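Let us practice reading a record.
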Amino acid sequence: MTGFYVRWAIMVGGLILLALMTFQQYQRDLSTISLATVLNSPATSKPVRIQGMVKSGTLSGAVDQGQATFELIDGPTTLPVEYAGPPLENIRELKTMVLIGHLDPATKTFKAKDTALINNFGFVAAAYLLTVISICWVLFAMSQRVMVLFKEIKDEKLYEPEIDPLGHNK
């Protein structure tokens, strides 16, 4: 029975390690920060990901050639953006976007170099977590039942070796 619990402890430990690694990757590569946080944090050369909506009436420049200026809004916070990167095919006013770049501390303008997909991983992560937990619970319950059944069979001695007519065990 001890081996049974060791196997499950190793599986649970592996799942916890996988969850921690996934969370670190999400924080490093996929999470966005608010516009207020970018404006209030010290300047850094490391690219950050921000999410906001393009303010109506502020989009200008050669969007089809990868040059655009606009204002990004997130609630009450507004941040001017200068985009210089790959041509944007889907930029338009009142569209929520994720931009990758850095804040120019002198002009308080966000210099965006690229865009990214809008992430909505909260729902997806919760669904996967619920699925994995329920599958683990079902497997654990099934293996427990198999162990109990095995013990009952062993205790009942349903299987006994056949004795031949001369009294020798086969």
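A brief commentary: The first helix runs from residue 2 to 29.
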